[in-house]
Write a structure and sequence with these properties.
It is a single chain. Helices cover 40% and strands 21% of the residues. It is an alpha/beta fold. The strands form 5 sheets. It has an 8-stranded mixed barrel with strand order 1-2-3-4-5-6-7-8, surrounded by 4 helices. Strands 16-17-15-20-21 form a 5-stranded mixed β-sheet, sandwiched between helices. Strands 9-10-11 form a 3-stranded mixed β-sheet. The protein starts with a helix and ends with a helix. This is GGDEF domain-containing protein. Keywords: CBS domain. Residues 426-577 form the GGDEF domain.
């Protein structure tokens, strides 16, 4: 876009105040309620700068960030005051804009009062994505704001210029960890180590941690286990006009998540208690502990309930076996000889994730015990041999009952997963998926191409599944997806859209452009056979009578037949009216 057009659009947006505010809940996970709401700005519908990223990029390009942010603040205060919410209002502002606004702080306070708010209702989020040009003046201003009662938060920690220096000087009330470190944190030990250090520092500096960008149940489980009790993200609530937060009745668990079996279960399930020692304990007393328990191979070393090392029996034997070893070392303390970098894993990490960490490490000592913590505090240990044996057994079991074509779980693990959810009385949706017109397609294109379609569909289901979903392959062209999401509708729409967009790759160009196959029907007559489609029958677990898995199978068959009534791709949920079908030909045309 030409710069002058972009600048003109920005000037128009600011001068006409063509923006509006939406609010995203910041959730107190321990109390299942909204601590407050972050004010987010959107451009007027249809405006060239409707998207906030484009709006602020343009403001940065033409040095209008302060003007735009002041406009956003005024809109946020006005909009939030109308909501009559008991929560806090979180407002974003960059350091330079705050300095430019310094002379108008009294005007800000007056504006709050005019709208029925006061400084104690507001938290100013200072993003560290931007440099601070005058640190002394900025810190003076922050001190003044605190005296007036404003809360202060550091936003996007770990993403920008200032980092720990800004944190130590501002002493904020809240620290918001950048979403980069929360994204798939349950699968990344490096991110876990970073976040764990932030949590520990916050405990020392007496400020609260807020995890941004929580989008999966696995991320939520992990950050809660690390001691983070405030979160924000699409899993907890999307930006909307009203200041509302409702704990989902089903699907999302803020208190006791349902864990999967096998390698997806948390490591804490294998955790065993083991006697611990202090780093100040003399080696003579440690020797007595090992003598009293010949099966004891190592001892965790703790300081204030937090693990700091491991002392191995082998190490003690090596020391005492040296000439005059006992006399030289028995009065020395454990801290001199312990392994100072033991493998410490969080209780919410899956067995598969821990196994990867273990096998990637070259330290021989790490193949004895792993230390398990919860919120940084010692829980127990896991013998690495037991861990690897458990994973091996799980993989063998999984392979035994997997579908040989797609390698997805087959009927036995599907039934086990459903029965587990029913026992725990967890709400879920069963999606029964079936390919329309697959047999004539298979006859026309050959079984190898048909198998390729089935493998592709299996991958498609996995790609669009979160930690709350279980994908299985019943056999043939029948698949199931068991979802504990709060709402199945977006999932069905995403699956159908992806299916229709990619389905053309498995048809010849002439068939796809024509919109049907020329093939013989069962009577041998040449007919027009519709292209492949995807039918999804949906059954809410609330319809299952007496928690009976057999009734679920019957309901799933009914839902699938309803979805297959029309040509094309579509879904039907029992208990709801028939959903519209998305014809393949329409999607192929790009409409």
């Amino acid at each position: 876009m030409a710069p002058h057009l972009l600048q003109r659009s920005l000037d128009e947006l600011i001068s006409k105040e063509a923006i509006h505010t939406v609010l995203q809940p910041i959730v107190d996970l321990s109390r299942n309620r909204a601590l407050g709401y972050e004010a987010l700005t959107r451009g007027a519908p249809g405006h060239l700068l409707q998207r906030p990223d484009l709006m602020f990029q343009a403001a940065h390009q033409f040095d209008r960030i302060p003007d735009l942010e002041i406009l956003c603040i005024r809109s946020a205060i006005r909009h939030f005051s109308r909501q009559q919410s008991d929560g806090l209002l979180f407002i974003n502002i960059c350091p330079q804009s705050l300095l430019n606004y310094a002379e108008e702080i009294s005007e800000l306070t007056e504006r709050l009062a005019h709208n029925g708010l006061q400084p104690t209702d507001v938290v100013l989020e200072i993003s560290e994505r931007f440099p601070i040009e005058n640190t002394g003046q900025f810190l003076t201003l922050i001190g003044h704001l605190k005296e007036l009662g404003y809360g202060i938060a550091i936003d996007d920690l770990g993403s920008g210029y200032s980092g720990l220096k800004l944190w130590s000087e501002i002493r904020p009330d809240y620290v918001k960890i950048d979403r980069h470190f929360i994204d798939r944190i349950d699968q990344d030990t490096v991110k876990q180590a970073f976040v764990s250090s932030v949590v520990h520092l916050c405990e020392q500096l007496q400020c609260e941690v807020i995890a941004e960008g929580i989008e999966t149940q696995g991320e939520l489980n992990l950050i809660r286990s690390m001691g983070i009790h405030i979160g924000q993200g699409y899993l907890l609530g999307k930006p909307q006009s009203k200041a509302e937060f409702q704990t989902p009745e089903h699907g999302l668990s803020l208190t006791s998540p349902v864990h999967a079996n096998g390698v997806e279960q948390p490591i804490v399930n294998l955790c065993q208690p083991l006697e611990t020692i202090a780093a100040s304990l003399p080696m003579r007393e440690v020797d007595e502990l090992f003598r009293d328990n010949p099966l004891l191979m190592s001892l965790p070393v703790l300081e204030e309930e937090r693990p700091v090392g491991l002392l191995h029996r082998r190490k003690l034997l090596e020391l005492f076996a040296q000439p005059y070893g006992r006399a030289l070392f028995e009065r020395k303390t454990v801290g001199h000889f312990m392994q100072q970098n033991p493998l410490i894993v969080d209780c919410a990490m899956t067995l598969e994730a821990v196994s990867k960490v273990l096998t990637d490490d070259d330290d021989e000592d790490l193949r004895q015990h792993l230390i398990v913590t919860c919120e940084g505090r010692y829980q127990g240990v896991v013998n690495s041999k037991d861990l690897l044996k458990h994973i091996t057994d799980s993989q063998i079991q999984k392979a035994r009952y997997a579908n040989p074509l797609t390698l997805l779980p087959g009927n036995v693990p599907i039934d086990e997963h459903i029965e587990q959810l029913l026992r725990q009385q967890s709400h879920f949706y069963l999606l029964y998926l079936d390919l329309n017109h697959f047999k004539p397609y298979n006859d026309q294109y050959g079984y190898r191409q048909g198998d390729a379609v089935l493998r592709w569909l299996g991958r498609l289901l996995q790609q669009h599944s979160s930690a709350l979903n279980f994908v299985g392959h019943i056999g043939g062209d029948d698949f199931v997806l068991i979802s504990q999401e709060a709402d199945f509708y977006p999932l069905c729409e995403q699956l159908l859209q992806a299916f229709n967009q990619q389905c053309s790759e498995f048809h010849r160009n002439d068939d796809w452009s024509r919109g049907y196959l020329n093939a013989h029907d069962r009577s041998g007559q040449l007919s027009r056979i519709p292209l492949l489609g995807l039918a999804i029958g949906v059954v809410p677990s609330t319809l299952i009578e007496n928690q009976d898995p057999q009734s679920l199978a019957q309901l799933a068959a009914q839902a699938k037949q309803q979805a297959k009534q029309k040509t094309g791709s579509g879904w039907h949920c029992l208990g709801q009216e028939m959903q519209p079908i998305l014809p393949v030909a329409i999607k192929a045309a790009g409409h």
